[in-house]
Every structure is written in C-alpha cells, then in structure tokens.
Automatic annotation (TrEMBL):
<dbReference type="InterPro" id="IPR051600">
    <property type="entry name" value="Beta-PGM-like"/>
</dbReference>
<keyword id="KW-0479">Metal-binding</keyword>
<keyword id="KW-0119">Carbohydrate metabolism</keyword>
<dbReference type="InterPro" id="IPR023198">
    <property type="entry name" value="PGP-like_dom2"/>
</dbReference>
<protein>
    <submittedName>
        <fullName>HAD family phosphatase</fullName>
    </submittedName>
</protein>
<dbReference type="GO" id="GO:0046872">
    <property type="term" value="F:metal ion binding"/>
</dbReference>
<comment type="similarity">
    <text>Belongs to the HAD-like hydrolase superfamily. CbbY/CbbZ/Gph/YieH family.</text>
</comment>
<dbReference type="Pfam" id="PF00702">
    <property type="entry name" value="Hydrolase"/>
</dbReference>
<dbReference type="InterPro" id="IPR036412">
    <property type="entry name" value="HAD-like_sf"/>
</dbReference>
<keyword id="KW-0460">Magnesium</keyword>
<dbReference type="InterPro" id="IPR023214">
    <property type="entry name" value="HAD_sf"/>
</dbReference>
<dbReference type="GO" id="GO:0003824">
    <property type="term" value="F:catalytic activity"/>
</dbReference>
<dbReference type="InterPro" id="IPR006439">
    <property type="entry name" value="HAD-SF_hydro_IA"/>
</dbReference>
Length: 213
C-alpha cells in the first residue's frame, strides 16, 4: 500500500519527523530508509534507538500511539495515488483478478487509506497487526493473503516498492513486480523491475512473468 499504491511514505516521514522533534531530536535519513516497508513496532524501535531514547516495550507502545495519532490526521486529509496505481487497480478489478492488499500498516490506518483506495477494491486485506508479529520480511503476510484467497503463492504476483516487502513476497514464493518509490531495488530471479505501474499491462502479466522466469 504505502509507496506502491498511494504516495504515503512521505506522510510517514512527516509524522516520524514530528515525533522526533517532539522528543527533541531528528531522524537520520539512513534510519528512515531502513523503516520503509517495516511494521509499526520495528519502525518505532528503530526510531527510538536513532534518537538515543529507551526502546523498551512501553516506550515503543507510547511512540507508536503518538505516531498513529499523527498519521490518522494526515491520512484523513486524503492520500495521493502513485503514478499508474489507480489505473492498475481498476484494470485488475475489471479483469476479474483476485486481489489482496498486504500491508505493514496497522488496521485502523489501513481502513482510512481504503477511503481512497476503495473498500471494495480488494478481495482480502492483511495488515501489519494481523500476522502475530511475523511481519515483512517474514513470508507470513503474503502466505496469509494466499490462504485467504485460497490460491498457491506460486500463482501470485506481488507488487512491492521496498526491499523488505520484496523479501517477504519472494520468501512466500510469489513472483514480484518491483516498482521502487523511496529506496532503490536490485534485480533478482523472482522479480521484474519497473519504474511505474503505468508501464504494466495487467492483461499480459502472465506472459510477462513467463518471460522473466
């Protein structure tokens, strides 16, 4: 979702920077990049460590609550689509492709984002607080989505923008359409790189990944 369908990574940067300023510090660029694609708990631990603050469970929970409140404000203002994403999602739906939203974002924020994406745009949604702590890059988010769709992960194409998300999808056995947003992505045997979703013909995805294999 973040950085793939909607350009919300920049909103996360605003919220994280605001929290850092609230605590009297500033977030380093390297740590911010390490957070891309991560779940809330890991991101808050990275944030607190970067700021030189205690990173116990209670401190992580407090930071997560603060950032979630700020993100709720930002998400409520509406989310900008990534280039080609709205058309890609519409094409997938018109073609009758079964779709799952697999995101590291927590459910309350995801539900806000679905006001932009469309609550009926996906057959299933899997959020970062719904995988028993087995978040990306663990394969469980994509494995859970495949179970809910009742499909083999090997028959799925995952669309990802981050190294963390790509690693999760590949570990689950999915082919990956990698469209970088905030951080670069490297080539790999199970992935096809594209600069934008506007470059993708969804009707030809099967042929695309047959050639890439």
């Amino acid at each position: 979702m973040d950085g793939t369908l909607v350009d919300s990574e920049k909103l996360w940067t605003i919220a994280l920077d605001d929290y850092a300023a609230h605590r009297g510090g500033s977030l380093s660029q390297r740590t911010r990049e390490d957070m891309v694609g991560s779940n809330m708990t890991r991101s808050m631990r990275l944030l607190l460590v970067d700021l030189g603050l205690p990173d116990g469970n209670s401190e992580i929970a407090a930071a997560a609550s603060w950032v979630a409140r700020r993100m709720t404000q930002l998400f409520a203002e509406g989310l900008p689509w990534r280039p080609g994403a709205q058309e890609a999602l519409r094409s997938a739906n018109e073609l009758g492709l079964r779709t799952a939203l697999v995101t590291s974002t927590i459910r309350p924020l995801t539900d806000l984002a679905l006001d932009t994406l469309g609550h009926d745009s996906f057959d299933v949604t899997v959020c970062g607080d719904e995988v028993d702590g087995r978040n990306k890059p663990d394969p469980e988010p994509y494995l859970k989505a495949a179970r809910l769709l009742e499909v083999d992960p090997a028959d799925c194409v995952a669309i990802e923008d981050s190294p963390t998300g790509v690693a999760s999808a590949e570990a689950a056995g999915c082919a990956v359409l990698a469209v970088p947003c905030e951080v670069p992505l490297e080539p790999g045997p199970l992935r096809t790189l594209r600069d934008s979703l506007a470059e993708v013909d969804f009707a030809a995805l099967g042929d695309l990944f047959t050639r890439a294999a």
